[in-house]
């Protein structure tokens, strides 16, 4: 669940605004006050993650929303600044709050439950370095900065990891040269990672199960991204220095695993200069001189002498390993202490006759950081659903849409008929509409078929009794409904437009996976007051089955229904699930005022302009009526 959303310098949000989100988060306010601005910032993240071009840091113009250029969306109060978006996500919020829920489709790794909280912040801008094309950056802005913070618990208690990455002030060519690569050399990996620098690495860890693969002398010099999410570290190392380090570690701990990185394998590629050969052979001679002292270990001294003779004649890495493998434990311990004491000398002797060989390799983030980033990517790619304010018009038959996700109804609900027909027998968890009857104080999720759940809520809202879908082959899908005042089945062109407006909302919300975040803009459009009122019950029911709803609305009926539910249901059950933001614009800047209700449905404050027109109009009508009566 999204716990909070931060945004700065985006459209009318000039100053940093941090908004706490609840399972049911609602934005209300006047037109052009900034409600849609928050929604658009969410849509940027969604359409960016759904883009196939992962090199694009941020996608401003995509399949969901078209925002123009960076200049069009940056705040007028700081045209030269960056746009910053941040969010805190609690991956296991609903699994903790509702342990009985069934998560049937997993889009992320199972060990995400180990992570308690993920905070991620990134900024982007159209201002690059001198070699960047300004015109292109206006349409394809670059990531400027990102900050990943995650918290988890292990057997030792609470843990935290922080990764900060900034866009380098040097261009890639300059960084390549500074790392020691020759001009025009063919790089072993894409150099896009060198556009970024790890700002701080004191908290950066590597995946423990892959530790043996990492160049121990390596340096974090960059990062590969999937859009604005870190994906892989870029490590710079010198092959010669790494081989020298590996040699010492092998002498200290014989039998250590060999490993491969960047196409280079350490084991089998070690070459020894004359001075290093003499230095190691001298130690071996000392060992063999003490041979009588360890005959009790049943070691064949003659066999060791034979390997030692080979090393003196032609020093070879394979023969050195064979010699080490046949040494008794006491001798290995002696060699280990000798290597520790002479570590720097051994490394220096190994490097002295070799030319530096710089290389780049890519390595995963730490276990939890890698899991968290993978979760963030898949969360925005697949777990956040959006339904726009203008739903698809009613049709007798809904044409086939090619290449759609079988669970995606479309941003206008255009695939609702196909999705409902395909999954009508899918077992889902939902809250029965009867749980929201006035005298019922307990809400409990149950399992049923998708089509039955949709029908249940259609009946409760008073727009239909029975719904039927049919696959018409190449023509598409037919959707018919039996309305309250008719026993005949009709397609949606022959019933009220409200059915075609409410149906996508029901299908999208009910079929979504627990843990999903659902975004609805003006869901009340074309719906009568009764349906708007009961729509509040439906959105509230989503919070009981592990689904978060973020809603932009002008519906006073929806808000008042939530107040009534807070008073009817026991304790703070509703108050804890709902937060309302009243949005207003002052001096060209949007301001978001949180409004909480208590267990009696009372708001903690009532901002001016917050659904007060009805009260004002009623008061004016009463005064006018009294005056008119007095004048008679």
Automatic annotation (TrEMBL):
<feature type="domain" description="Endonuclease GajA/Old nuclease/RecF-like AAA">
    <location>
        <begin position="476"/>
        <end position="559"/>
    </location>
</feature>
<feature type="domain" description="DUF3696">
    <location>
        <begin position="576"/>
        <end position="619"/>
    </location>
</feature>
<dbReference type="InterPro" id="IPR022532">
    <property type="entry name" value="DUF3696"/>
</dbReference>
<feature type="domain" description="Endonuclease GajA/Old nuclease/RecF-like AAA">
    <location>
        <begin position="1"/>
        <end position="162"/>
    </location>
</feature>
<protein>
    <submittedName>
        <fullName>DUF3696 domain-containing protein</fullName>
    </submittedName>
</protein>
<dbReference type="InterPro" id="IPR051396">
    <property type="entry name" value="Bact_Antivir_Def_Nuclease"/>
</dbReference>
<dbReference type="GO" id="GO:0016887">
    <property type="term" value="F:ATP hydrolysis activity"/>
</dbReference>
<dbReference type="Pfam" id="PF13175">
    <property type="entry name" value="AAA_15"/>
</dbReference>
<dbReference type="InterPro" id="IPR027417">
    <property type="entry name" value="P-loop_NTPase"/>
</dbReference>
<dbReference type="GO" id="GO:0005524">
    <property type="term" value="F:ATP binding"/>
</dbReference>
<dbReference type="Pfam" id="PF12476">
    <property type="entry name" value="DUF3696"/>
</dbReference>
<dbReference type="InterPro" id="IPR041685">
    <property type="entry name" value="AAA_GajA/Old/RecF-like"/>
</dbReference>
């Amino acid at each position: 669940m999204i716990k909070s959303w931060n945004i700065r310098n985006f459209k009318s949000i000039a100053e940093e605004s941090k908004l706490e989100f609840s399972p049911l988060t609602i934005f209300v306010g006047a037109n052009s006050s900034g409600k849609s601005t928050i929604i658009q910032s969410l849509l940027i993240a969604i359409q960016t993650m759904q883009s196939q071009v992962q090199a694009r840091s941020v996608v401003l113009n995509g399949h969901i929303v078209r925002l123009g250029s960076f200049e069009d969306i940056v705040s007028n109060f700081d045209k030269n600044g960056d746009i910053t978006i941040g969010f805190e996500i609690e991956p296991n919020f609903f699994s903790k709050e509702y342990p009985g829920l069934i998560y049937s489709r997993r889009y992320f790794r199972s060990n995400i439950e180990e992570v308690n909280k993920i905070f991620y912040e990134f900024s982007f801008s159209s201002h690059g370095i001198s070699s960047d094309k300004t015109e292109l950056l206006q349409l394809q802005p670059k990531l400027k900065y990102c900050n990943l913070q995650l918290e988890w618990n292990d057997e030792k208690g609470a843990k935290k990891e922080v990764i900060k990455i900034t866009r380098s002030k040097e261009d890639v060519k300059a960084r390549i040269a500074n790392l020691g690569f020759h001009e025009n050399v063919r790089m072993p990996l894409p150099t896009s990672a060198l556009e970024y620098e790890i700002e701080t690495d004191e908290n950066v860890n590597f995946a423990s199960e892959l530790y043996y693969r990492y160049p121990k002398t390596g340096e974090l010099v960059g990062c590969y991204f999937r859009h604005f999410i870190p994906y892989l570290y870029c490590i710079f190392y010198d092959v010669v220095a790494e081989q020298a380090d590996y040699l010492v570690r092998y002498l200290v701990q014989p039998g250590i695993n060999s490993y491969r990185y960047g196409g280079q394998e350490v084991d089998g590629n070690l070459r020894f200069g004359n001075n290093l050969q003499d230095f190691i052979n001298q130690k071996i001679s000392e060992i063999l001189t003490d041979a009588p002292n360890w005959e009790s270990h049943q070691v064949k001294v003659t066999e060791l002498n034979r390997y030692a003779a080979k090393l003196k004649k032609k020093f070879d890495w394979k023969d050195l390993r064979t010699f080490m493998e046949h040494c008794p434990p006491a001798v290995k311990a002696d060699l280990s202490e000798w290597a520790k004491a002479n570590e720097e000398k051994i490394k220096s002797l190994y490097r002295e006759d070799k030319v530096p060989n710089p290389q780049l390799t890519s390595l995963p983030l730490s276990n939890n950081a890698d899991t968290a980033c993978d979760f963030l990517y898949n969360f925005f790619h697949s777990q956040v659903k959006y339904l726009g304010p203008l739903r698809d018009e009613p049709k007798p038959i809904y044409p086939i849409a090619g290449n759609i996700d079988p669970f995606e109804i479309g941003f206008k609900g255009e695939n609702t008929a196909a999705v409902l027909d395909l999954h009508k027998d899918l077992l889902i968890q939902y809250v029965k509409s009867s749980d929201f009857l006035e005298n019922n104080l307990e809400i409990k999720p149950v399992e049923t078929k998708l089509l039955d759940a949709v029908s249940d809520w259609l009946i409760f809202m008073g727009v239909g009794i029975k719904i039927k879908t049919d696959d018409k082959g190449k023509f598409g899908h037919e959707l018919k409904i039996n309305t309250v005042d008719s026993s005949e089945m009709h397609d949606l062109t022959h019933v009220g437009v409200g059915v075609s407006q409410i149906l996508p909302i029901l299908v999208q919300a009910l079929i979504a996976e627990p843990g999903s975040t659902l975004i609805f803009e003006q869901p009340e459009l074309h719906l009568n007051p009764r349906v708007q009122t009961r729509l509040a019950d439906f959105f509230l029911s989503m919070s009981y089955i592990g689904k978060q709803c973020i809603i932009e609305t002008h519906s006073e009926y929806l808000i008042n229904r939530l107040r009534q539910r807070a008073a009817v249901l026991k304790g703070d059950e509703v108050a804890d699930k709902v937060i309302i933001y009243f949005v207003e614009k002052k001096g060209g800047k949007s301001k978001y005022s949180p409004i909480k209700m208590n267990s009696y449905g009372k708001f903690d404050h009532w901002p001016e302009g917050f659904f007060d027109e009805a009260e004002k109009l009623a008061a004016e009508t009463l005064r006018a009526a009294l005056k008119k009566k007095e004048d008679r």
